[in-house]
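**Backbone shape codes:**
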Amino acid sequence: MSANSFADELRNRSDEQLATLFQIRPDLLTPVPPDMAALAVRANSTPSLLRATEGLNKFQNDILIAAATLAQPFKRTELVAVTDTSASAVLDYFIDAALIYQDEDKYRISSNLLNILGDSPAGLGPITGIKFSDKQLKEAPKESLAVLDKLIWGPPRGSVSNIKSPGKAIGWLLENKILTPIDSQTVVLPREIGIALRGKKVFKELQKTQPKLEGTNRKQKDIDRAAIANISDFLRWTEELAHNWSDEPPMALRAGGLGIRDLKRTADHLGIDETCVAFVAELLYLAGLIVIDTDDAILPTAAFDLWITRSHEERWHNLVSLWLETSRVSGLIGKVEQKFTAPLGPEIDRAGISSLRKKLISTLDSQKELAPEFESLSEVIKWQAPQRFNSDYVKWTMREAEWLGVTGQGAISTFGSNLISDQEELGVEAALPKPVDHILIQADNSAIAPGPLTVEISNELGTIADIESRGGATVYRFSEASIRRGLDHGKTGDHIKDFLKKNSKTPMPQPLEYLINDVAKRHGRLRIGAASTYLRCEDEGLITQILHDKKVESLQFRKLAPQVLISEIESAEVLIVLREGGYLPAAENANGILISAPNIRRSKSRPKPPRFIAEPTTPTEVVIQSAVRALRAGERATSHRPQEIPRTTANETLEILNQYIEEQASLTIGYADTNGGVSNRVIDPISISLGTLNARDHATGQVIPFKISRITGVSLAK
């Protein structure tokens, strides 16, 4: 196909037909082509054709492949003959989509699209023009028929040791021109003969309709109950992860992303598996709520503090919307060959995954109260998008939808359905349990939260206690390490006791009070600073004990003074090892002042979420109509080259413009830009004022001022 012939076909289309083309293939509008020739080139480009064919369902894809098997150009009846009568309607769709164009009374596929579809479409060999009759096979040896059985449904090529001595079976087929030699060791079954042997059909069976979705029926109230629990958990995970990374920021890998050690540590802290942590982190990263800072620390941003004040429904809507649109696939994390693929890293973008997610969720929405079986769902998605289908993607999408609460018990929730149908009220806020403002302290140094806690109590309690178990009620455990963590955050022993007494509906047990008092008394007796690291204490006996303690000998302390030890190990590491050894040191700054301020860190960098491969969205009718007008204007302008417009002086230009304003004629003007470049513009002149022509530009449909001094020439538009 020549670009010109295709362009001519596009020129002959009506405005309505062009609008249909842009609806089917919105990528052709970015940017709007200057004329039909440019549109033809873009529509026939490999990226655009791949995008268009990837959007076909299995039946459409099979019909396109069948069309590619025919000699070009082909008749509509020929396509129907080798497929099905339904192929006629699909052919019309291909014409609308400019995948196939009309060539007089026949139809043609572009050579580029034929190359994309491959040289053996449907497992058939090349077209040779050989005449074939079924009668030829009546006398064929059984061995020859056995060879044909292996080639009929592809691949159509076979190997021989020597084409000059092929053996009886292949020799007979070559002699009767049923097989054709390609080289000295390869034979091929011609396409015409292959189709004939298939019963004059390209495929054994055409699956014209989507398979039925099979699964287990659920009650909507049970689905929503499970989904809202998932939503509650997921929003809590986002908060806990951001707060944890504020307290203990992980460091990004050199190659980018979160290391496996920090991933496991965060998973332990949240009480969920690593794949779920990676998914939560990815969504927060996409939302700009966490970012890799300039010093490679992964920190929450200031936007997180604003985000956390919004309603649960707003937060959920924000994250789910990002999930539906992103090209990042968190399921790939840790799964590329033997190499660890990091969360937040650059290696998990996949084109077309967003479209696949939307198809899957829409499929679930079409069968409400049905939790589909995985195999059945996979078959449906495979039919809807055969070129983009990947069973892992289906599995990961269903898993992520459940985490998010888009589904519950494997079926779409009311909240998920409301979101994809763009409902103003999603129902999340009303369905979530109301936060509780109290805890129940137990005698075993634990506390029970009988429901989701208020943000204030949750943040405070998370600082001084560790989560032991989660569920309808969350169990927190107080320990020496957790109380020390609270003291490190600037709290005092009295502050911790007052908080617990105020917010617990059960009295504080005496052992817990003793624990808090004991840790508070010992906290800060040891002081750590950077020098490489020094350790000082007024208690010389404690200094001597640490110096000879086998549990901390890895720190390689040296005695500098009766009350001072030094180490070459970084102060942060010394702090950790001493605490693991049962000591309770506190850090101090360069001025010897105890560091006890709350460790609330925020990134100073502006959020730069990872790039993702965006998919063209369906343009609005206004955008499409503007594009069609611009194309028509470009065509008119193309027919008038700059040199064809006679050059005029400013006075001559004014005279001509005034004449055509009265006649209300469309004009083509040469217009110079600030760099001296001249372009042709098709306009409808309206008025002239103060050296400026006001005219409607056909390319944009808007009224634009043109400086008369920059108009190089004027002619009537054709």
Notes: The chain has 29 helices and 25 strands.
